[in-house]
Write a structure and sequence with these properties.
CATH architecture of the largest domain: 2-Layer Sandwich
Distance between the termini: 47 Å
Number of strands: 9
Strand order of the largest sheet: 1-2-3-4-5
CATH class of the largest domain: Alpha Beta
Length: 157
């Protein structure tokens, strides 16, 4: 993990090495899934490919900084329960009482930590493909709404 001038932390979530057999032997390329966040309601991810691992990580970090999202928080948890499908990944996020901590799998846990959530329950119900898990988590966070917004919508109907 590294810190930049914009107080965003960076973490490598997943690295994949691909090989291609060519005339002279094997040629390797790398893909990297990078996460950035300020632990205060802003988080982003980037996915990049390159022939060198360091280039893939750098490109992924740049992409992650461009894809930052912010979302609704309610204290140290989320405002409501949500179930999201993305490709084969299915993800359940539930708010938890203060002090109960974070109960989540490895990749989802990293995202939620970088987002600044401390009390939440998350369960991966589908695919264990890292990219789809990350995209499902970001989709869930972007679909969150605060209580006041929901009450206004209900009153209007």
């Amino acid at each position: 993990m590294s810190e930049k001038e914009d107080n965003l932390e960076e973490k490598v979530l997943f690295i994949n090495r691909c090989s291609k057999v060519v005339k002279g032997g094997r040629k390797f390329s790398f893909s990297a899934l990078i996460l950035v966040g300020d632990r205060n309601g802003r988080v982003g991810f980037g996915f990049a490919k390159a022939n060198e691992l360091t280039d893939a990580i750098r490109k992924g970090g740049e992409a992650a900084r461009k894809n930052l999202i912010s979302f609704e928080l309610e204290g140290t948890t989320i405002p409501h329960e949500i179930v999201v499908d993305y490709d084969g990944a299915r993800l359940l996020l539930k708010p938890a009482k203060e002090g109960s901590g974070m109960i989540a799998g490895s990749r989802v846990r990293s995202i939620l930590e970088f987002a600044g959530l401390r009390d939440i329950v998350a369960k991966n119900l589908g695919s264990n493909n890292p990219i789809n898990q990350v995209k499902a988590t970001f989709k869930a966070l972007s679909l969150l709404r605060n209580r006041e917004e929901i009450m206004k919508l209900r009153e209007a109907v």
